[in-house]
Specification:
Number of helices: 2
Distance between the termini: 21 Å
Strand content: 15-25%
Number of strands: 2
Structural class: alpha+beta
Radius of gyration: 15 Å
Largest sheet: 2 strands, antiparallel
Oligomer: single chain
Number of domains: 1
Shape: flat
Length: 79
């Protein structure tokens, strides 16, 4: 499994704004994709709640850090 990690330090209002936009876009995209692929599944609701919490936290305009971790497995999607 490959692991990729990036951390962005939020040290200004413009940093906080950029992180807020990123969190909103991620939430909106995930919401649409989960609804299209899984419908009203409980797992999709749990994932959305987690992303909603992040989106709400980034709206508070404070210092902090955002860390993104992507773990890539060896298996691939069926075509």
């Amino acid at each position: 499994m490959s692991r990729y990690e990036a951390t962005f330090e939020v040290e200004s209002k413009s940093d906080a704004y950029a992180v807020r936009l990123l969190a909103e876009a991620a939430y909106d995209t995930l919401r649409e994709e989960l609804r299209d692929s899984l419908g009203e599944d409980t797992a999709s609701d749990e994932a959305l709640q987690q992303f909603a919490a992040i989106r709400e936290a980034t709206g508070r305009q404070s210092t902090g850090s955002l860390t993104v971790i992507y773990e890539q497995r060896e298996d691939s999607f069926d075509s």
